[in-house]
UniProtKB/TrEMBL annotation:
It catalyses: NAD(+) + (deoxyribonucleotide)n-3'-hydroxyl + 5'-phospho-(deoxyribonucleotide)m = (deoxyribonucleotide)n+m + AMP + beta-nicotinamide D-nucleotide. Its EC number is 6.5.1.2. SUPFAM superfamilies: DNA ligase/mRNA capping enzyme, catalytic domain, Nucleic acid-binding proteins. InterPro entries: DNAligase_adenylation, DNAligase_N, NA-bd_OB-fold, NAD_DNA_ligase_OB. It comes from marine sediment metagenome. Keywords: DNA replication, Ligase, Magnesium, Metal-binding, NAD, Zinc. One of its GO terms (molecular function) is metal ion binding. It holds the Pfam family DNA_ligase_aden. Residues 1-248 form the NAD-dependent DNA ligase N-terminal domain. This is DNA ligase (NAD(+)). GO terms for biological process: DNA repair; DNA replication.
Length: 248
């Protein structure tokens, strides 16, 4: 919680505008996601290299590592931002029944909400939104691996319940993984915090989905043997979920 409070985009009081007529409930729980904008991630990684520190492999790892810091002053130095997208719990007030109205409610309180959220009147509009986002996925300033489609009628959506941790009133539509061919220059071994040895492919830099990929996971030695991967090979590289590069 202390680490989240260091994010400049998270309001320290609600409503953010003291003159606002919108009054928040006495108790409110909001869900969102912290992330690194791509331009700030590149600059942050370069500053780590300049300081003799290891760069992060991708923005998601950098964001997770920043929020897990024991010293919140370290988190405060990192250019994280935040988008809020749901109301989890509240007391003492009746909130809007429509998803898009709840997003507007969050904005009125001062919470950052993605300006790219879109209301679709029918399934054809959803399909078009998916195609549009797939086309522009490499042109926006944050990583995205798909879109989430939610039922706008929240009481109806909530009445459908869950499958495990996943709500039946929402579905994630993932984009196809992007793949490029490059040369395997070397194989190095990283040691995890539990002592597990993980082989890492050192690649001739290649652009995949707007990101320059230099390293990729090889999973384990059995996988290397199964694929007969050797230094100097031409290999196909994918980014799983637009985040973790791996050798196909």
């Amino acid at each position: 919680t202390q680490n989240l409070r260091t994010l400049y985009s998270l309001p320290k009081r609600i409503p953010l505008d003291p003159k606002s007529k919108r009054k928040p409930p006495p108790y409110l729980v909001v869900r969102g996601e912290a992330f690194f904008p791509l331009d700030k991630f590149e600059a942050f990684n370069q500053s780590r290299v300049d300081a003799g520190e290891s760069p992060y492999m991708n923005p998601r790892n950098a964001a997770a590592g920043s929020l897990r810091q024991l010293d919140s002053s370290i988190t405060a130095q990192r250019p994280l931002t935040l988008y809020c997208y749901d109301l989890v719990a509240w007391e003492g007030a009746k909130l809007p029944d429509k998803q898009r109205d709840r997003l507007a409610f969050l904005e009125e309180l001062g919470f950052p909400v993605s300006p790219d959220n879109l209301y679709c009147k029918n399934i054809d509009a959803v399909a078009k939104a998916y195609d549009d986002w797939n086309d522009k996925r490499n042109q926006i300033n944050y990583e995205v691996d798909g879109i989430v489609v939610k039922i706008n009628d929240r009481p109806m959506a909530d009445s459908l319940g869950f499958v495990g941790k996943d709500p039946r009133g929402a579905i994630a539509m993932k984009f196809p993984a992007q793949e490029k061919t490059t040369t395997l220059l070397d194989v190095q071994v990283s040691v995890g915090r539990t002592g597990v040895l993980a082989p890492v492919a050192i690649l001739e830099p290649v652009e995949i989905g707007g990101v320059i990929v230099k390293n990729a996971t090889l999973h384990n030695y059995q996988e290397i043997e199964r694929k007969d991967i050797r230094i100097g090979d031409r290999v196909n590289v994918k980014r799983a979920g637009e985040v973790i590069p791996y050798v196909v």
